[in-house]
Structure formats: structure tokens, C-alpha cells
């Protein structure tokens, strides 16, 4: 007896199988390129995806059973707190950041530090903030704090428990241990549900300050959860209809300083809708896209100008604000890319199809699908500019796992856009995205692999465009050479003989034939144009319909090519007057033109 699978089970299974993570995007691009361009278009080293756990960079110095607290140098705390805030801003808001440095300094100066949850939280903050400057010390802090978190985990859960496991998640994200981050984040979410921070009426019972802290803690969990689920292709853990925490503040526009956490959670909620409505259901339409477009435009009207102002003037804000604003803005661009990416892939398949006809191009330019494909590429280009600007200003100096994931998606979109003929300017933006990934790869091994994949795609796109342009140049040269004899004719054939131009055997040796020798073009012409070293196939290997051409254009012209039999004047009225200035009666001095 067959039992129908519950709709919820189908939905979750579909959601996992059809996620929009970076691995899925890379596979889609690889499939398109290998089918339309060539089996070896991507380099072999890019065939794997960095989803495996990274081993720690240093061997653990901790001895099992050693409960001694690692040494704390109070002089390093200001720098560590500054780096932590650069990592966390726009992603999580777990404490009162105005008091964080003061609280850590007071704790560090204690002669006897308590063995409690506060010490664990402080060590995790220092671990995240020290990863770049002293990775070995950061690992010591993290391992001690993680072990103490294990030991203290019991049924007595609190807000501090949520903070601890969220910080562990953040540290592991910065360490490129994404599977471990996903595992520990599950503990934080279940603890949050246990203490009820997803219900704002419960949070309100603790007074205004605690109410705000608990609400913002839940928003932080939502942001991290949706980032993990989107980037890894796994179902979110916080999508609960029972949640009553508001994600919008009615007075947002009146505030002088934008609330980056609110901006972040709101754009991630739109991103969640894209995954739910499009990628999980494997369906997309212009009507559905328009609904999501309204949400994106609404978000843009509230936040876009404020975020751009922060990024454009980082000297008037602290480094953490500029870094956080850049991460939130990049998430917005990624959401635009995600909703329009199916239309870009459709347009690429149409453009790279062997049966594409140039006559369809004009109507395609005005179609809604083509506009959405352009929007995907525009969003990818717009994402790269502010990131590279902050890198050059030395503002983005910390771990930025969100930016690395979105930059990878941007580099893929730009690379395939270049491949699909959306403009050679995309080569510049692709190289910019690779440069940004290379900057992040100093401390992020995922960024290093993403950069290799993007470089491979860029190389494949440039080689493909070069071969296509060479083939087009060959076709044009073959046509024009018949007019003036620019290319020597084949041995034993008189190119002026009318019989030769109509003989079937002569037609078989046209450039549309695979039997034609590769070097039928004059070498001096290729060398002059810098194309001698290009390893492109004969034009006969290319389907003429790919370029929107008919076979008749590739054949030797017969006398009708000139509009009449060769050697005859024909109708004098049909001649093209190239000397209109001389028809006025002479008297024109052309000496200075000679």
C-alpha cells in the first residue's frame, strides 16, 4: 500500500536538494560551460567544493584535563575588541558594544578570574578578535572556552548559553569550519527556543533593557541561521511561525544612525523568501519575481542611501560600522542576484545555443527575461565596487565570511556574463572580484579556492571569446578575399573560372568544411592581428548558425554578388556615387588631402 509523503516532508526534502548555495551555483555554471564551451573549460583543481572541515592551523597546546586559564594580556584587548566588532557588526549583536571594552578590561585585570559563563564569553570574544594577529593564542582561548561550555551545558539554560554557542559558531565560521559552525549553532537555537526569546511578549517581562537585548539576540540568530542555510543549502532552524519578535522599527527612518542589525535581518528575510518561493519549489515566473522585486525596492528605499553613505565616508564612522554596512549592502545585491539568476542562466543558454539566430536579439533586448538577466549582472558588478574600495582603504581587514560567500557568487555571475557576451567590461569586474577574494584568502582558505574557480572561469570565458572573434574574423576575411584575391587559391583551381565557383567539389572545400586545411589564412594577416598563437579550431568546426549566419554567406561569390554579371556596367542609375563633392562643377582643391 502506497502512502503519500506529507507535504511538509516533501517541502523540507525539496528545500535541501534544491538549495541556492555556492556549490549548487558552481555546478550550474560548470554544467553550462562544459556543455556549451568545452569539456575541459574549467581547470581540474576547481572541481571540488570547499565544504569539508578545515583542520586547525596550529597543533593544540592544551593537555587533556588541564583546566588552567590561558594567560591574558590586557594590552592586546583593545585591538581584539575592535577586530571582534568588525567581524560581528551587521551579523550579530550580542552585547552592549559601548561597554564591551570596559567590561573586558575590568575582567582582565582581576587577580582571580571566576570560572563561570562570563569568563567563557570573554575568552570567545578575545578568540574571535585575535584570530588574525595571533592565531595560536586565539586557538588556545577558543579551546578552553569550548571545553568549559561543554562542561557547563545542562538543563539550566540562559541568555548567556545562547551567547556562548553563537560566539562558538562565529569563531568557527571565521576559521572556515562551516560544518562545525552549523552543528554548534543548532545548540544555540534550541537554547533560544527553550528560554523563549523568540516571543517578544516573554522578553517584555524582563524590563525595557533586557527586552531589547533579548529581541536583538533573536534577530542575530535569524541572520546567522539564514546565512548558514543559504550558503550551505540546508534548511533554516529559526523559521518558526510562532515568532513574535518584530523585525522592523516604525522609527527607523528618523534615527540618525542606521540600525545595521535591523537592516541585515530584513534583507535576509527577503532572501529567505527567494529560497522558499523559487529555489525550493523549482518554479519561477515574472509575476512571482515582481512580488519579490517590490520587497527589494521597499528595503532599498529605506536602507540603500544610508548604507552607501557609511561606506563612502568610513572616516566619519568607525571601522566596524563601515565593514558591517558593506556586508549588509552585499547581502542586498546577493538577493537581487539570487532572484534573477534563473533568468540569467536562461539568457545564457539562449545566447550560447548553436541554434541561436541573430534576428531574435532585438526582441530579446526588450523582454522581461533579458532585463532580469541584466539586473543579475548589474547587482554583481555593484557588489564588487564598495568591497574593493574598503579593501584599498584598509577598512576590511578582519574575517568576513559573509562577504566571501557573496563575492564568490558575484564572480560566477560576472564570469558567465562575460562568456555570454554581456560586455567585455565584465572582464574588469571579474578581475576586481578575484582581487577581493585574493585579499580575503590571506586568512580564509575558502576564499582561496573560490578565487581559483573564478580565475578558471575567467580564463575559459576569454579563450572562448577569442576563438569566437577569430572565427568571425576568418569568415569575414574569406568573404572579402574573393573580391580582390587577398588569399592564394588552392592548387589546380582557377579562382576566376566561373566553373570553379559553381563546381560542387569546390564548394566542398569552402571554410564550412572540416577537410579545409587550418592554415588557409595568410600567416602575415594573423600575425598582424596578434592571432597567430591562438589555438582555435578551423571555422568549419563551428556551426555557422551560432553566429547568425547562413551557409550562402560562406561560399565564393558568383557574379550576382555585384548585382550583375562581372565586367558589365549594368544600370548606371544603380551605381553608388562615392564622389558627391565633385558633382558640383569642380574647382575643389584636394591637395591637402593627398
Description of the structure:
With 594 residues, the chain is mainly α. The chain has three domains: 18-49 and 250-354 and 366-470, no CATH class; 51-246, no CATH class; 485-563, no CATH class. The protein has 21 helices and no strands. The radius of gyration is 32 Å and the shape is elongated. The protein starts with 6 loop residues before the first helix and ends in a 66-residue tail after the last helix. It comes from Fusarium piperis. This is Xylanolytic transcriptional activator regulatory domain-containing protein.
In short:
The protein is mainly alpha-helical and 594 residues long. The chain has helices spanning 7-17, 22-36, 77-88, 97-108, 117-130, 135-152, 159-174, 178-195, 200-203, 208-232, 260-279, 286-312, 319-352, 361-365, 368-392, 401-419, 425-440, 445-484, 498-502, 504-508, 523-528.
Q: From the structure provided, what is the oligomeric state, counting identical versus distinct chains?
A: single chain
The computed structural class is mainly alpha
Low-confidence stretches: 1-19, 48-52, 357-365, 497-570, 576-582, 590-594
Rg over CA atoms: 32 Å
Total number of strands: 0
Number of helices: 21
Q: What is the arithmetic mean of pLDDT?
A: 78
Strand portion: under 5%
Integer count of domains: 3
Question: What's the shape?
Answer: elongated
Biggest β-sheet description: none
Question: From N to C, what is the helix and strand string?
Answer: HHHHHHHHHHHHHHHHHHHHH
Give helix % range: 55-70%
Termini separation comes to 94 Å
